[in-house]
Amino acid sequence: MIRISIDAMGGDHGPSVVIPALAAVATRRSDIRFIIFGRDEAVRPELEKHPRLAEISEFFHAEISVRMDDKPSQALRHGRWKSSMWRAIEAVKTGQADACVSAGNTGALMAMSKFCLRTMATIDRPAIAAIWPTTRGESVVLDVGATIGADAHQLIDFAILGTGMARALFDIERPTVGLLNVGVEEVKGQEEVKEAGQLLREVNLASMNYQGFVEGDDIGRGTVDVVVTEGFAGNIALKTAEGTARQIAGYLRSAMSRTLMAKIGYFFAKAAFDSLREKMDVRRANGGVFLGLNGIVVKSHGGADQDGFAAAIEMAYDMVRNRLLDRIEADFDLFHARNPLTSVRRSATADEQE
Amino acid sequence: MIRISIDAMGGDHGPSVVIPALAAVATRRSDIRFIIFGRDEAVRPELEKHPRLAEISEFFHAEISVRMDDKPSQALRHGRWKSSMWRAIEAVKTGQADACVSAGNTGALMAMSKFCLRTMATIDRPAIAAIWPTTRGESVVLDVGATIGADAHQLIDFAILGTGMARALFDIERPTVGLLNVGVEEVKGQEEVKEAGQLLREVNLASMNYQGFVEGDDIGRGTVDVVVTEGFAGNIALKTAEGTARQIAGYLRSAMSRTLMAKIGYFFAKAAFDSLREKMDVRRANGGVFLGLNGIVVKSHGGADQDGFAAAIEMAYDMVRNRLLDRIEADFDLFHARNPLTSVRRSATADEQE
């Protein structure tokens, strides 16, 4: 049985999208159970439309809904303990749920997740991982914006986290990993990226096939299964790719409506265009996964439709089923066993922080 | 008369693409003149095919050709004084040419340009600016990879350089400018980006309409005319966009050949697809411009075809005609007049470096 806690009030559409998405997933996965949090008057009417879903779900009224434009600090102040977002995360902490899914605002969800679940003992910072559609399939890209900047050891943490996710989601024994860097030759790359690369090569983990540096255009090419970078560059890469996809979709629309011939062509090729649109739809490449916390939290795109939200749930389901957290912990143990120096450094840093 | 010096040996195709491109531009611009450098046996046969071009050009044999995979240090060691690349740049320094165009390797071209032309006295570092096709037209994005990292003052330098380029190329009196940042709310952006934003707002230049922060997806949207960022994030954004465009082109090709209906559709809409392909072709969005040097150097894409190389020349032509360097110098004077503190700081730093 896999139990997913749901913040039903998140996203641009709230329960009207979230609840039908749960119902859809429930028909496909017989061993899934939901714990749903949200405002009674908004969620109940939707739930009543899906009696089969209601049967396999528990619903709890939550007073407060975090707004999409709340600042993380506001959300924490007003929504801790009482909001649907907080309570969905808390269900993971208490062990009632195996993972949490919310389409609510990223900053608030990360702040609450960190506060409630805490960062894993072995690492400094969590990361947000994105699933990136590529010509060869899908890759994991992280960090896409949890924090700005990362030193070499944090980059290695991200590499181990991302590898665990690729193993859990893509069913690859030894995912290929690359560090995002720039290729212009007179610039030699950020110092921390170079240092991280050297360490990864030296440690040579059994679970990770480190391939070296990759560039921006390697992401979409699917050159590696896991692309590792710090949050500033990662967020800009992700948003730039989304923007480019939207821009080209716009070109395509206008090209296909400009002349009569083009319109006729569009008519014949409509099915092909529809499948293309699906591939290019940024809302379908859905769900940032928060990695490095003591629990799995999936952030669905705020604008996700029913299919998009369902995809985020399926991702959470797969990560639980494939024991993501156990894999990640095992990899960290292995890494620190091979690289005792890091562990010393790490505990020293941890002491300082206390 | 506008005189452009040409490194005929650069790029994947060398003179066989470069020379026909010059010939094509010459038919469109009656007031253009070329000074061409390259190996005699490679360039002359091409030039002989274009007598009109030969008439308006001077050709000089250059012993050495910088290879596409030469490291900048190698290129400088072997190619200084004697390579076609160096001599094309030098023609700008000596005043024989108004601008230089090369499709040679970026690292070598930047190293030689810096060495030969020197960085402008008022700034710390040059930047590479890209012309980015957007839904609204075109924008200038810089730095896309000259150097990694930039402090607030260097970002402001980039903003002034980029504004000058947008004024010269797009014929806009007061281009809109944005600083590239991340939107995730709990991270407040890099300190240097915030500081640069505050300074730009305070100084409020007449030539620049500073709009605040923009995100990755704003670039393709054309939210601002000039997007300012440091070279690491900028290079990754550029390459990621190129990769995404190529990826979608691949999807499109395979979607249009999968079914008979799609093939029929493609047949009718072929003209529309051709115009779309042109829009999506990364080689056409051609030419990184080196800004911040005492001279204009345009880097054409190494894989550029004849049209691509011609576009790079036209860009150099436009920047010369619209007096790019004069505009930039005037803007820096204005900026430093309004912000005397910066000038003091800047000269202090310059003294230290000597």
UniProtKB/TrEMBL annotation, chains A, B:
<protein>
    <recommendedName>
        <fullName>Phosphate acyltransferase</fullName>
        <ecNumber>2.3.1.274</ecNumber>
    </recommendedName>
</protein>
<keyword id="KW-0808">Transferase</keyword>
<comment type="pathway">
    <text>Lipid metabolism; phospholipid metabolism.</text>
</comment>
<dbReference type="InterPro" id="IPR012281">
    <property type="entry name" value="Phospholipid_synth_PlsX-like"/>
</dbReference>
<comment type="similarity">
    <text>Belongs to the PlsX family.</text>
</comment>
<dbReference type="Pfam" id="PF02504">
    <property type="entry name" value="FA_synthesis"/>
</dbReference>
<keyword id="KW-0443">Lipid metabolism</keyword>
<keyword id="KW-1208">Phospholipid metabolism</keyword>
<comment type="subunit">
    <text>Homodimer. Probably interacts with PlsY.</text>
</comment>
<dbReference type="GO" id="GO:0043811">
    <property type="term" value="F:phosphate:acyl-[acyl carrier protein] acyltransferase activity"/>
</dbReference>
<dbReference type="GO" id="GO:0006633">
    <property type="term" value="P:fatty acid biosynthetic process"/>
</dbReference>
<keyword id="KW-0963">Cytoplasm</keyword>
<comment type="function">
    <text>Catalyzes the reversible formation of acyl-phosphate (acyl-PO(4)) from acyl-[acyl-carrier-protein] (acyl-ACP). This enzyme utilizes acyl-ACP as fatty acyl donor, but not acyl-CoA.</text>
</comment>
<dbReference type="InterPro" id="IPR003664">
    <property type="entry name" value="FA_synthesis"/>
</dbReference>
<dbReference type="GO" id="GO:0008654">
    <property type="term" value="P:phospholipid biosynthetic process"/>
</dbReference>
<keyword id="KW-0012">Acyltransferase</keyword>
<keyword id="KW-0444">Lipid biosynthesis</keyword>
<dbReference type="GO" id="GO:0005737">
    <property type="term" value="C:cytoplasm"/>
</dbReference>
<keyword id="KW-0594">Phospholipid biosynthesis</keyword>
